[in-house]
Specification:
The structure holds 2 protein chains of 2 kinds. By secondary structure, chain A is an alpha+beta fold. In chain A, the strands form 3 sheets. In chain A, strands 3, 4, 6, 7 and 8 form a 5-stranded antiparallel β-sheet that branches. Chain A has a 3-stranded antiparallel β-sheet with strand order 1-2-5, with no helix packed on it. In chain A, helix 1 runs parallel beside helix 2 and helix 3 runs parallel beside helix 4. The longest helix of chain A is centred in the N-terminal third of the chain and has 18 residues. The C terminus of chain A is likely disordered. By secondary structure, chain B is of the alpha/beta class. Chain B has 2 domains: 304 residues, Alpha-Beta Barrel (7-stranded beta/alpha barrel), CATH 3.20.110; 112 residues, Up-down Bundle (immunoglobulin/albumin-binding domain-like), CATH 1.20.1430. In chain B, 49% of the residues lie in helices and 9% in strands. Chain B is built from 19 helices and 10 strands. In chain B, strands 1, 2, 3, 4, 5, 6, 7, 8 and 9 form a 9-stranded mixed β-sheet that branches. The termini of chain B are far apart. Classes of the chains: A alpha+beta, B alpha/beta.
Chain lengths: 297, 530
């Protein structure tokens, strides 16, 4: 990790920025300087990936970039050592020497350098937490489960903040040109505001689903984002009266009645000597038993 | 009564190439697979050809794999790896001279095998691709490609252009390296959904493979179950996996590789010998690794410490016996099917190539014996998809169902709580890639073209289904997470640089050097036609 130079004076920071050849450093405010220096160091350390394989003239120009003066007679070994020292100086001087030494932990590939170290070193690459765009994406997991993830623009985020709770609605729109109200079935779940993904159970394989995220205005559901169409896979045989065939010589297609089942396939049968019970299923009676057996009711 | 069996071997490893390190543990995946699977398979094919044994086999070699097999740095590293392994084996020959005779017998066999492997590698000047091509030219082997980086297409379909890019690059890459158009394509993880066939047809792909339930749950039930290929409404042929053949090999309970006489994978001298003795052949960071020198047999349901010594002769004998059994079962199956069908049954048996040799040490010998047995058996013949298609007079038109060959047959291996975090990033990157590839599709500035091509590479490398798979299975997870994040963050960095017209040539050059996959990359595969 590179340390943020918050403790330095603005003069010290400007001097450092000058050495690092940061453009426009002179007119920057302190916070901007700290950020610019940090970013520049990250960039430089990233560039240093594979530095050992650089040629001497490449090394020299790299040393220049990090503000290092190089004597003409310097050996490659010395120069590498000097660069390495500079990198170390940029980093936290924490007790954890393993992390400190691993200056390359900044890049994922390099953190694998020494296998013994990589068990301690976690990847430093952070991907953006949000892309600040309205997005709701549905993906099929299997015939009965869908996965949704979403991302909000700043504006949508604000709207939702004002109108909690937020709901996810899932519509079965198989063979329907959906207009917002004509779904076969509509399912709804209140979302935990801290999550950005969910898995939902849907009853129908081989069906088309759409989802919306929105809030409630009285009894009315106000949709803000709509998902893509997501189709659950088929999980049982279909039946058809007619078969379509193609003659491979003439490339002509023709229909035939599917009169005979030629190959009988024996499917696996799942069974047990007694019916499995589930205490989580709410049934009409015996509530005394299942309620007392349930936690977190 | 006769039938055909289409044995298909899917050879794939994720692209692992770290030129910035002299040693990188995960590069051993490739090296082990070359020594244990790819070269042994080539030797099997060559022996069959020399002996005049007629056979037919299909192999999908994925673009990441053939890109690694074409990479000079990796070839050099492999040669070094193999020479060091031979040195260790020589030490083992000396050492086992004073140990159990069976161990010594094994050590001598390994030394012989590894030396032959090195000779093979040197004789073809390290070009396994040209060796595969030579076999293909005899007509016995049909080589097919795979979608570009083995990206998992059923979850990519929300970005149709990204799917297009995977398919188009899968074809282009094969054409570049094998100098021929691939007739077939293996879809990563057999991941298929209705509509994908249109993309394949546009790339002139004649056929692909699916799992059994793609046929069982198709829009119209195929008349002959999985025992005849069908054609999709877009005229692409589809072959579906025969569950019986897979079960005979794969089943944990009844599968062949679990036989007590076979070699045990988990007892390796890399772990069994004192550390100081094997040290120079281990990961320099001080971790023990598998060497491929193994002296114990599966033995039975006992702990690793109670395994009995392995006898290579017994292993070979067992492989031959299993091959005979497999062929007998295929003959019986064909007889049974022929009674039900009025046309010739086609049995499709696809496997991971790396099962043979790497996991199942005797696997290549088993395959060799299967082909030899089949050549002498009436009733079942080994064949290739192309030959099957040519032999057909008519074909049923069917839309197969969305399916994969993963656990439970759908997407849950590649989409669950362990790996779902990758999709928001991958799909955002895909959308951005299409955006810039379309915006700059007429660019003539070399630096923009290079940056856009590198963006395409980073995205495709991040899309490899291997990373999601590894996150699910739980071994070397950190590597998979790192690779996903590395490629995505490099993608985002280059994307930003292109957008603000500030491409750093040094950085770009560095990334090009780190991941030289698809030197012929053309980002236009991501450009939308307007």
């Amino acid at each position: 990790m590179i340390k943020l130079n918050k403790g330095k004076t603005i003069r010290q920071l400007k001097k450092e920025a000058m050495h690092l050849k940061i453009k426009g450093y002179y007119n920057m405010r302190k916070a901007e300087l700290v950020k610019a220096i940090f970013d520049r160091k990250v960039e430089l350390m990233r560039k240093a990936d594979g530095i050992e394989n650089m040629k001497m003239n490449q090394l020299r120009s790299f040393a220049k970039e990090i503000g290092l003066k190089v004597a003409r007679k310097t050996t490659k070994f010395k120069l590498l050592e000097k660069i390495s020292n500079i990198f170390s100086a940029w980093e936290y001087s924490e007790e954890n020497t393993k992390q400190k030494k691993d200056r390359k932990s900044i890049s994922a590939t390099s953190s694998l350098n020494k296998i013994s170290e990589r068990k301690v070193v976690k990847t430093e690459i952070e991907l953006p937490k949000t892309y600040k765009k309205d997005k709701l994406v549905g993906l099929a997991v299997n015939p009965n489960w869908l996965h949704f993830y979403w991302d909000f623009s700043e504006r949508t985020k604000e709207i939702f903040k004002e109108s909690l709770p937020v709901f996810l609605r899932v519509y079965d729109v198989t063979y329907i040109d959906f207009n917002g109200t004509n779904a076969h079935r509509t399912f709804e779940i209140e979302l935990n505001p801290n999550t950005s993904k969910y898995y939902v159970f849907v009853p129908q394989p081989n069906a088309d689903y759409l989802a919306e995220i929105g809030y409630k205005d009285g009894n009315e559901f106000v949709s803000l984002i709509r998902s893509n169409l997501v189709t659950t896979p088929s999980s049982s045989p279909n039946f058809a009266q007619m078969e379509l065939w193609m003659d491979l010589r003439t490339r002509q297609k023709f229909s035939e009645i599917s009169s005979k089942k030629f190959v009988t396939r024996i499917e696996n049968l799942i069974g047990a000597s007694s019916m499995p019970t589930s205490i989580d299923v709410i049934s009409g009676g015996h509530s005394f038993f299942w309620l007392s057996g349930r936690r977190n009711v | 009564m006769s039938g055909k069996i289409v044995i298909t071997l899917h050879a794939h490893l994720p692209y692992v190439n770290h030129p910035d390190f002299p040693y990188f543990m995960e590069e051993n995946w490739l090296f082990e697979a070359i020594t244990e699977t790819y070269i042994p398979l080539l030797m099997v094919f060559n022996r069959l050809i020399t002996d005049g044994v007629p056979f037919g086999v299909t192999m999908s070699i994925t673009p990441p794999l053939f890109e690694m097999l074409s990479n000079q740095t990796l070839k050099d590293k492999y040669r070094k790896y193999l020479k060091s392994l031979i040195k260790l084996t020589e030490k083992e020959v000396d050492l086992t001279n004073h140990e159990e005779p069976l161990k010594h017998k094994c050590a001598l066999k390994y030394l012989d095998d590894f030396q032959n492997t090195l000779d093979f590698f040197d004789n073809c000047e390290g070009s396994l691709i040209s060796e595969f091509k030579k076999v293909e030219n005899t007509g016995a082997l049909e080589l097919i490609t795979c979608n570009a980086t083995h990206g998992f297409l059923p979850l990519m379909r929300v970005n149709p252009q990204a799917v297009h890019a995977q398919i188009a690059m899968g074809v282009k890459a094969f054409e570049e390296r094998f100098k021929e158009h691939p007739k077939g394509m293996w879809l990563a993880e057999c991941g298929y959904y209705p509509g994908l066939d249109k993309e394949l047809q546009e790339q002139n792909i004649d056929f692909f493979f699916v799992d059994s339930h793609a046929f069982w749950y198709a829009n119209i039930p195929p008349r002959y179950d999985v025992y005849r290929p069908i054609v999709t409404p877009n005229n692409v042929f589809v072959f579906a996996r025969d569950p019986e053949s897979s079960e005979q090999v794969w089943s944990a309970q009844y599968g062949y590789p679990g036989d007590p006489n076979y070699r045990e994978f988990y007892r390796d001298v890399g772990f069994d010998r004192p550390f100081d003795y094997v040290k120079e052949y281990m990961d320099p960071a001080g971790n023990r690794i598998n060497t491929g020198i193994k002296y114990y047999s599966v033995t039975g349901d006992v702990g690793l410490e109670s395994k009995k010594l392995y006898d290579p002769d017994k292993g070979l004998e067992t492989a031959k016996r299993h091959a005979k059994d497999f062929v007998n079962k295929k003959v019986a199956q064909v007889n049974r099917l022929t009674d039900m069908m009025e046309v010739e049954p086609i049995i499709v048996a696809p496997f991971d190539a790396e099962l043979y040799g790497h996991w199942w040490y005797e696997g290549p010998k088993f395959l060799e014996s299967v082909f030899r047995e089949l050549a002498e058996t009436d009733g079942v013949r080994s064949s290739t998809p192309h030959e099957v298609i040519e032999s057909m007079g008519s074909v049923q038109v069917v839309t197969p169902a969305m399916s994969t060959w993963g656990a439970n047959g759908y997407n849950e291996t590649w989409l669950n709580g362990n790996n779902d975090w990758i999709y928001p990033h991958l799909q955002e990157a895909e959308a951005r890639m299409v955006e810039i590839a379309t915006k700059y599709k007429d660019s003539t500035d070399p630096i923009y073209i290079r940056a856009l091509n590198m963006c395409s590479r980073e995205l495709m490398l991040a899309e490899s289904s291997d990373w999601a798979f590894i996150m699910t299975t739980g071994t070397t997870v950190e590597y998979a997470v790192n690779r996903t994040k590395t490629h995505l963050s490099r993608f985002l960095e280059l994307y930003d640089a292109i957008k603000v017209h500030n491409i750093n040539e040094k950085v770009l050059e560095h990334y090009e050097w780190l991941d030289p996959i698809f030197p012929y990359m053309d980002y236009h595969v991501y450009s939308l036609k307007q």
